[in-house]
Design goal:
By secondary structure, this protein is α+β, with helices and mostly antiparallel strands. The protein folds into three domains: 77 residues, no CATH class; 94 residues, no CATH class; 230 residues, MetI-like (MetI-like fold, Orthogonal Bundle). The protein is 55% helix and 13% strand. It has a four-stranded antiparallel beta sheet, with no helix packed on it. It has a three-stranded antiparallel beta sheet with strand order 1-10-9, with no helix packed on it.
Length: 430
Amino acid sequence: MLPTFFGTTMLVFLILSFVPGGPLERAVLQIKQQGAERGEAGFQKMNSKTLSPEVLESLRKQFGLDQPLWKRYLIWLGIWKRELQRKTVVLHEPFREDIRYVPVGQRLYAIQRWVQVSEQNGKPFVLESGVGSDFKFFGNYEELPEAKDIRDWERSSDWILKKKQGSFFELTQKAYSGILTGDFGISYVYDEPVLKLIKDRLHISCYFGGIGFLLSYCVCIPLGIWKALHHKTWTDLASTLLVFVGYCIPGYVLGALLLVYFGGGSFWDWFPLGGFRSPNFETLSTFEKIKDQLHHTLLPVLAYTIGSFATLTVLMKNSLLEQLSQDYVRTALAKGLSERRVILVHALRNSLIPISTGIGQVLGFFIAGSYLIEKTFNIDGIGILAFKSILSADYPIVMGFLVLNTLVLLLGNLLSDLCYAWIDPRIRFR
């Protein structure tokens, strides 16, 4: 599992590092456009003028492109120290540390404090104040609980101190900060931690994906068994036709058709036009909340599951037919076992082996590969978040989504192996 994870993330990291139109190019273009709109000197001829080397170097540092590629990957993983900030300061003149965010329990809090370089007996050292007591927090973030008073100064070991010239010092703050430490970075577009953006939407995708996953297996396995026992009958042929018609319709196309015919404003105005819940969901009673959630669930789940019906159903049918033709089935029937017991106990268990091997891929699609259906139903899940991030070259979110998708697929494959070992007693993990 670990080689697969590192291999996948490394490959995508390399691709994103060399693909044109990245965040640096977009930032440069935005600066040029803003300068041209203001009519500033040097920006009137955008085709012939470029930004100064100092500005470009500052942008490269901002996006972490000033390091070699191999080091950027290790920094992103969190096994190489990341430079959080670099300051040039004057002795005994404090500065306010850049805002950072730390998780405490289920909430995210902002950290803010003052830092200064002091000197004692000719030896400089770094002091830090208490956290967040001198100015008001902004946005939705709250003050860190049990914050120290701004007047409480203490020595800090978080900064690397280097004397430059005279009373000027250079402070550099580094730390292990990557996906292995739970830090997925800050979004370029939303200016929020990637992990928070994913957490806010993960339950939505898991809700629809989990229901679609369970519904597919709970329907397709019995349907495949029934088709195998009624092989070559007119009901088998009719159900096969319906199953493959559904397979030919992409999930997002079916979702659009369902919204046209059954969504709000149509002739059969039975379901909402999308979303996860109604805007007034919190004001509803318990029964009304259940009803509202079911109303917003049915159409997306149908669109989720339609594509897997044919594959799982036909795979289950063909696998059971193959097992029914084996010698052990005829031997069991010849020994006097009932047909029901032979089919449901002996043949069915062996026929589930091909079904169990594909759980990882199916689970990964339902939970992390659903952006087209989320786009159709206007569901703000992680699929649509990743889709928008790809269009806007918001690479921290793209890589965070890749990590999530890879973990889901690996856990799905592990689940497949466990199911495989449970179904087939000959398989043992040693």
